[in-house]
Amino acid sequence: MFKRCEKNPLICPSDVKPSTEGYRVVGAFNPGAVLFNDEVILLLRVAENCIQEPGKVRVPVYRFDQGRGIAGIMEFDKNDPDLSLKDTRGVVYKGKDYLSSISHLRLARSADGINFTVEPTPFICPSSPDEKYGTEDARIVNIDGTFYINYTVISTDSWCTALATTTNFKEYKKQGIIFHPENKDVSIFPEKINNKYVALHRPNNSGFGKASIWYAQSPDLLHWGNHKCIVRPRNMPYESMKIGGGSAPIKTDEGWLCIYHAKGDNSRYSLFALLLDSEHPWKVVKRGTTPLLEPEYDYETSGFFGNVVFTNGIVIKDGQLFMYYGSSDETTCLAVTTVEKILAGF
Questions:
Q1: pLDDT in tens, 158-185
Q2: Which of 226, 287, 327, 333 fits as disulfide partner to 217, beta carbons 3.0 to 4.6 Å?
Q3: DSSP per residue over 171-184, as a string?
Q4: Which residues make beta-bridge pairs with 150?
Q5: Strand pairing of 146-155 and 158-166?
Q6: Annotation: CATH topology of 3-344
Q7: What predicted TM-score, i.e. pTM, was given to this entire model?
Q8: What number of other Cβ atoms are within 10 A of residue 167's Cβ?
C-alpha cells in the first residue's frame, strides 16, 4: 500500500541543532505537515535531554517570565539521598518530578518533500506553566488561509491539547488549551460541516474501557462540545491497548479518509485506514482490517522506543499522498501512496 522513501530516515537527531547549550537532541519525530508557498513544512517534535557530567544527574527544565519560556538545567548530586530515579523518563527530588527529556516544536522545510532543512531554533516551545514539561506532536490544518496548529502540552496537571495559529510560519499566536486533561490526538477537519468546525480527539480512559477516538463540534475552534465516542479498539493484537487519530482528515468522494494509529500487543504501534461519512462524520463508513503500515525496517523496530510507526502529518503533493511518520520515537520518515489506493484497499 505504501512505498517507503529510500532516503529514510529523512531527519535524525544529529540533523537538529540543540536549542540550548548543554542540551542534546535525542529525537526528531512525529511531525505535523502542510503545504505552504510551494514547500512542504514539517513541524517536528524535537526531544532534548542534558549532557551528563560525572557524579551528577542533569535534567532539562523551563522557567517562565512574562510569557516567555527560558530553558535551563537542574543539576543534582548523584548520591543525594533525596534523589530517586523514577524510571527512564525522569527523576524525583524531594517529592517533585523532573523529566529526563523535554520536547519543543521545530520547523523544517523542503521543496521536494524529501530533502529537508531544519531551522536552527525552536518555533513553538514552552512559554507557561501549562507547558512546563514540553510541547509535542503537532497537527496542522489550513482553513481559509489560517494554519491551525494543535499540539500536546505537558505539565504537573498532566497532558492536554492546546491550539496556536499562524499565517506565515514566522510568528504565531497561542490560543490556549482547547481539550482539557487528559486528551490528545486531536485532528481538526479542514472545513466546516453543517456550519460547525469538527474534530476527532482521544480522551484518556482510566476506567472501564480502552482509549478510543471521539468526535466533537465547535462554533469557533476554541470551545468544543457534542462529544461522541465513534471508534473503539477492536479485539485484535494490533489494537489491544488503544487507538488515536492522526493528521487532518482528507476529503474524498467516498467520505473523510483518516489514518489512525493503534497500540497493540507488546506496545507495538501500527497504522490503519478509516472512512467517515461526508455529511455525518461521526458515522463510520469503512474501517481497514489490516495495517497500512507497521514496524518492519530496522529504523522502525529499534530506537529510543522501538516498534513504533506514528503519523500526525500528511500532505497531498503532485497527486500522491505523502505520509510523514515518527519512527521508534526517534526519527522522521516518509511513505508514499495515493488516496485511490487506500480507498480501494478497504
A1: 999 999 999 999 999 999 999 999 999 9
A2: 226
A3: --EEEEEEE-SSEE
A4: 139, 163
A5: antiparallel
A6: Tachylectin-2; Chain A (2.115.10)
A7: 0.97
A8: 13
